[in-house]
Specification:
Blueprint (H helix, E strand, L loop, with lengths): L5 E5 L24 H9 L5 H17 L3 E5 L3 H4 L15 E4 L2 E4 L8 H15 L2 E4 L11 E6 L2 E7 L5 H11 L3 E5 L10 E5 L5 E6 L6 H7 L6 E3 L7 E2 L2 E2 L7 E3 L2 E4 L8 H6 L4 E4 L3 H4 L5 H4 L1 E2 L3
Parallel strand pairs: 1-2, 4-5, 7-8, 10-11, 15-16
Antiparallel strand pairs: 1-17, 3-4, 6-7, 9-10, 12-13, 14-15
């Protein structure tokens, strides 16, 4: 099995990100409201271009030092030339994913974000010469709701039901045909704000970190069948619960032997537990991105060709 160390990222536009403040988005369920953007908009937070650029450059340094190959895509001009401009396109995770040599295009339950999916699908088709696959109408899937892990012993698909629906996951599963499927109900707007897998240097699923307080009982019982250690997190290490915002530490880039995020975990024992698997850790703060509800996992997307 090849070890995945190649990712996509989007270069911020020359004028910076969210120069007029953060946009509040909500999908088709009450849980799909991004409370981080609500708090930022209510407080009138506008990122400092200089500090945001500093955070971004430091993050790139951390990823580069971990010997991760990064392919940068330019920020689509069409997203910022319309009104209102769209700056959430920096979160390349949400707009689709590579699988079986194709790009599967996200179908957003947040209608105003669908233009991100459209713009990046065209860009990826032209750059990588891959087939673009679209999900059926009414099959909602935003890829911040998906962890897809290919291991020597089989593939794992974790899907969230906050801004995605069962039809969306069914359509995706039909395309990629994973060996193990875990569809999970959480109070997070995207699954990757509530949990994260850990992968050892050989590509094996070593553990799964999650905050049970954010998951339904049915989902907790389902995860108990996973067959790897479950690392329990406090809500403070996630997106938080409702208006009680967390640090988003769980929203990290998890690759074989690597976990990179923006904050140390506050839940006692978690950092030592991660180290026990031989996984290299690196952190660099991204507070201005957290105001938009995203961090390292949101800002990156694995290249699988």
């Amino acid at each position: 099995m090849s070890v995945q160390t190649s990712i996509l990222m989007v270069t911020p536009p020359p004028g910076g990100l969210w120069p007029h403040g953060y946009t509040v988005h909500k999908g088709h369920t009450p849980e799909s409201l991004n409370y981080a953007t609500v708090a930022a908009a209510t407080s009138g937070i506008i990122p400092s271009p200089e500090l945001l650029s500093l955070q971004w450059n430091q993050a790139i340094d951390h990823l580069t030092n971990a010997k991760i190959e990064i392919t940068f895509l330019p920020y689509p001009q069409e997203l910022i030339s319309q009104y209102p401009p769209d700056y959430d396109g920096i979160f390349i995770r949400d707009v689709g994913m590579f699988a079986n040599g194709t790009w599967i295009k996200a179908n957003f339950s947040v209608p105003e974000r669908q233009r991100e999916s459209d713009a990046f699908a065209r860009m990826i088709e032209n750059k990588f010469y891959v087939e673009i696959k679209e999900l059926p109408p009414g099959a909602y899937l935003e890829c911040g709701e998906v962890f897809f892990i290919e291991t020597p012993s089989g593939s794992y698909y974790f899907g969230g039901l906050g801004r995605s629906n069962l039809a969306g996951h069914d359509a995706m599963i039909k395309i990629i045909q994973p060996d193990h499927v875990f569809l999970l109900e959480t109070t997070g707007f995207h699954l990757d704000t509530t949990c994260a897998p850990l992968i050892d240097q050989f590509g094996n699923l070593s553990a799964f970190m999650y905050a049970p307080a954010l998951f339904s009982q049915k989902s907790i019982e389902l995860l108990s069948t996973l067959g790897v250690p479950l690392i329990t997190l406090s809500p403070e290490d996630t997106c938080g619960m409702g208006e009680n915002l967390g640090s988003m530490a769980v929203n990290g880039l998890s690759l074989p032997g690597i976990f990179i995020n923006a904050e140390k975990f506050q839940t006692p024992g978690v950092e030592a537990h991660i180290s026990s698997f031989g996984i290299a850790r690196s952190t660099s703060p991204l507070p201005y991105f957290h105001h938009a509800g995203g961090s390292y996992h949101c800002l990156t997307n694995e290249v699988r060709l």
